[in-house]
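Input record (one chain):
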Amino acid sequence: MLLKAVFSSLSLSVLAASLALPSYAQETTPRTKVCAPVSEEKISSLFDRWNQSLATLDPVEVAANYSKSAVLLPTISNTPRTTPEKIKDYFVEFLQQRPQGVINERTITLGCNKASDVGIYTFTLHNENGEAIEASARYSYVYVYENGQWLIAHHHSSLMPEVAATSEVDIKEQYYSKPI
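The corresponding structure, as predicted from the sequence alone:
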């Protein structure tokens, strides 16, 4: 009888342990990542959304396109913008030029909840005299899918090196000195 009780107790312990294993295994196994639907057209439209927000001349609306952990390496500032507040502050000055961009060439790469759009764009801006000027730059956007929407996680923009190398004036003057 004692032997039967020991085996019953041992059997229950083994059964309890085996029932606990699947639960433990689920906790240590990485969850399957769900990838948001994405296409080149969708990623292309994100530049259009950003460009349309520039047209509002509202830095808060422009900054809303960026992830909370985004990094902006802007064209006409030497300061990396690494917080939503710093990104918004950059656009306060930039939007005074009434910028509007056009993509000249691009390469889009798609991934699971990430995508990149890199290439060359040209901006039409207005200087302090109201004259329209153009500036071409290289760009890169890295987008992430967060909280049900595509946001900019990384944005870098820099003047074309040939243009920047031809003059000894500062970058703002180069950027705004070519009337259309």
